[in-house]
């Protein structure tokens, strides 16, 4: 999969980098939301903060470590995947509470 021009193409980067990231960010956000204890879970801003904190801190750490190699074409999709994964994890937590 990583031969020739494939990783340089958008589809190759999406398949090899961003899709697996979304598959790991969503469960991380879900687990962070599930660990948040009950008296503090009820207010939505606190619950959102608890759910999004772990993936956002991991993204910031990753950006800090790779600061010299950052490019807009890699940073924007990466942050979009972060948001999609966080929202999916938060939605999974909310759906589990309603069930």
Structure, described:
This protein is mostly helical. The chain is 80% helix and 0% strand. It has helices at 10-35, 38-41, 44-65, 72-98. It is elongated.
Write a short abstract of this structure:
With 99 residues, this protein is an all-alpha fold. The protein has helices at 10-35, 38-41, 44-65, 72-98.
In terms of topology, how is this protein built?
Blueprint lengths: L9 H26 L2 H4 L2 H22 L6 H27 L1
Index terms:
99 residues; mainly alpha; 4 helices; 0% strand
Cα radius of gyration in angstroms: 16 Å
Largest sheet: none
Which structural class should the secondary elements be placed in? Answer: mainly alpha
Mean pLDDT: 80
Q: Termini, distance in Å?
A: 40 Å
Approximate helicity band = over 70%
Compute the number of helices: 4
Total number of beta strands: 0
SSE order, as H and E? HHHH
Molecular shape: elongated
β content, as a range?
Answer: under 5%
Low-confidence stretches: none
């Amino acid at each position: 999969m990583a031969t020739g021009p494939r990783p340089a193409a958008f589809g190759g980067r999406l398949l090899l980098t961003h899709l697996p990231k979304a598959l790991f960010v969503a469960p991380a956000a879900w687990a962070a939301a599930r660990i948040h204890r009950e008296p503090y879970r009820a207010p939505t801003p606190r619950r959102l903060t608890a759910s999004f904190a772990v993936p956002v801190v991991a993204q910031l750490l990753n950006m800090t470590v790779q600061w010299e190699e950052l490019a807009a074409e890699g940073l924007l999709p990466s942050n979009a995947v972060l948001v999609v994964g966080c929202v999916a994890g938060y939605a999974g937590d909310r759906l589990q509470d309603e069930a």
